[in-house]
Amino acid sequence: MLVGLSGKAAKMIFLVDFGMCRTYIRKNLNGSVTIRPQRQKVFVRGILRYCSPRIHKRQDVCRADDLWSLAYILVDLTTGLPWRDIKLEKPVAKEKETISDAKLFKDCPEEWIEIMQHIRSLNYETRPNYKLIYNQLQKTLIRLQVSYSDPWDWDLV
């Protein structure tokens, strides 16, 4: 993630690092679109702390996996992830599989639980409901009285 410094980009958060991405939706010669077939087995890629449970199971990545990572990053920035000090993949994967949303999002905005419930409902083909996610994040900002113009932590130093 990057944060814009000035102008219209100031305080905007940008998700970057598409080095591991691949085409997910293909446009066919006749103009129709299809979802790329799911690969049967893939290697673990990405940052262990933030990758989705699907990746630990060696399942092909999809749109939902980016949202899993985003949710884990938000929790990590807010309260810290319960597995942040675990360095081995299997124990991290076990934590992710067994932790309840109530425990994962303890002391986080309550709206994030609904986002995670939606993420958990997604499969390889399912298009995420980005409007639901956006609305829940907006609801959080309103409830907590956070403004886009509020200073970042480092602005206060």
UniProtKB/TrEMBL annotation:
SUPFAM superfamilies annotated for this entry? Protein kinase-like (PK-like)
Question: By its UniProt entry, which Pfam families does this protein fall under?
Answer: PK_Tyr_Ser-Thr (PF07714)
Entries under PROSITE patterns matching the protein = PROTEIN_KINASE_DOM
Q: Which Gene3D superfamilies match?
A: Transferase(Phosphotransferase) domain 1
**Which residues does the UniProt record annotate as the domain Protein kinase?**
1-141
GO MF term set: ATP binding; protein kinase activity
This protein is called what? Answer: Bm8480
Organism annotation: Brugia malayi
